[in-house]
Input
Amino acid sequence: MRFNKLDLNLLVALDALLTEQNISRAAEKIHLSQSAMSNALARLREYFNDELLVQVGRKMEPTPRAEALKDAVRDILVRVDATVAAQPEFVPAQSNRLFRLLVSDYTMTTLMPHLLALAYKQAPGIRFELRAQVTHPHRMLERGEADLLIIPTEFCSTEHPSEVVLEETFCCVVWNQSPLATGALTAEQYMAAGHIIVHLGEGHFGLEDGYMQRFGFVRRVEATTFSFVSPAHLLVGTDRIATMHRRLAQQCLRSLPVVIREAPVPVPTMEQAVQWHKHRTADPGLSWLRGLLKKAAAAMDEALHDGQ
Output
């Protein structure tokens, strides 16, 4: 099919080329031979009268024209996919659809077991691909590589809709034989203790660290980790302290020799949201899954309350 003398199939090739910036990987991504992808690039260069990708050392880099095209091409393809692939209705019990979610290990540990259990009862044929969070998760939405993001509201993109799934508070966790394990934790003790914090890479830390900086608290950091789950494990046998999501801390009580103490400094409540691409708002499958996420959050809290 052609539009304004452009073979629209070439847009798929262009998207792969601009994403991968490598002919071999782009060809593999859309199941073409390397020679076919090279031919597609030649035709695209002729149509746009631009090199689009140029060799710089051992890698290819996009030209300014290619950079200008990248988001527009991806948006077109996502719109087409949302229109063509969307079904007029979604019947959970009959579906074998694959849902791709980006989640942190906090969400993986606390919420996902309940989501998958509920989904198994209602839609035993559906499949899940749970991926680790990345620095710019909304880009995966825009590239069509993720269906839903589950992230704090302050990290949500303003370009796409979202809704709150749950609210989370923070608390402190210490080894049960630490001097900090008895009595109320004071602000002086908190600030004097060695802390284990989460570092997510590229200058990003856990939300609680941002809150601390906002209120002018400077903690003595003795260890950093990439995982929200691990601080409770890492402080066992030490007098260190970790400020953690409360639901995660409550789960750690079941398997680790730790205790929870209330934070003696202000740590605001976190809102955890689900976000989806603006062109997929009418997708009945995603609407069903968003509703199931809220039910999973309720089931999670019920299980914690019952001590299960």
Observations:
- The chain has three domains: 2-85, 94-165+271-306, 170-268.
- The mean pLDDT is 88.
- The first strand starts at residue 2 and ends at 3.
- The radius of gyration is 24 Å.
